[in-house]
Amino acid sequence: MRTILISSIVLFSASSTFPTPIVVSGGNQNDIIGRFLRIDNGTLLAVIERNPDWNSGDFYSSLSTDNGLTWGSLSPVIVSAGNQSTFSLTKGNSDTILLFYASDESGVYRIYSAFSLNGTTWSNSGQVDLGWSSSQNVYDPSVERENDGSLTMTYISMGFGAYIAHRPSGGQWDHDKILLQTGAYRVRVCKSAAGTYMASYHRRTGTTYQYDVFVRTSSDRLNWSQETQLTTNQNSHDPFCSITPDGSFMVDYAKNVSGVYNIHSRISSDGVNWEPEVQITNDMTFNTQPCLFVENDTIYRMWTHAIDYNTDNDIYFEKFIYTPNSVEQDTALVLEFLDFNAVQQGNCILLEIRSIDEIFLSLSVFDFTGRKVLHDAVLATQGASEKTIDASSLSSGVYYIALKTRGFIRAEKFFYIKM
Question: What is the pLDDT of residues 55-65, one digit of tens each?
């Protein structure tokens, strides 16, 4: 039996079927990292690192004008000597798009920046001065734009660990070299509406290649909480944190289970107490380098999918309606769902529900774009009940089935095949 307090925040259920993702960049090229956001004209912009031999990376961009359903051909962003690697994409002031990245074009890795007004034409702004000596390798920037237009960056200083820096709007980056965590890699930063920063990263918890995912929080970028460990399998990495539509922290990461990396996710309302882990992808190949972009009630996700891990990686994309819901903390109601399962029978969907009390459930079905395509209602009496949904008007594809009652929402992904 699984007990769910209605005053808690509940992550979407992991369905027995996983959606077919959209390919942003495919073919036989080695596209190893993707980052994306929405620009002011409503277009989705993705920047891709293409690195054929893992030592000579360059950046390319792709645009989607239909909210991610299709993506255009790649256009060069930064193509130059050396290895362009590890990067971050964020909005600047006005309609400016900012790219921060690491390059060893000077002989050591330094952080550089570039900007664009349309996502296609880019101008290089040169090296970012963070106060380190010219011989020190610094790389892997992650930049968060604050509400006041300032920028907060986390980055790695080789041999030391993860650091954090800040640039006021219209000002210069500070040289304070605030240490966030020794031995940390792939550090990413996000900030909640309440003003709490979260940094997610992986660091070694065993031998050379044994890593786990951790998070720390701060209210001032200077003083950070004790670490909270999110994984314990010593083979998890590349975390990416973001803020959900209801203000919770969400961290995606790559986790190796039975020799295969897949994307997993956890969620927390306070950065300390975390909901159980949910598996996002389910492939017998590697899925790594997740990236999240949140807008209204929709979460957009991008990650790297290995066709051949050494030579051929693609960038995948999906989006889904975020269905957790928080209610007033004095709500005493407790719902216990023993099961919520959806199976296809012909052109119908059979919904199997178990509950411990008599509750009225509002049932909705959303398509992959977040558009409500079916709405019905079912009275779920105590114990088991079933509801058959006529899905003959739907086309084959990925849908989200959402049940709502008394402010509580629970949903599952469902892959429907039209007969």
Answer: 999 999 999 99
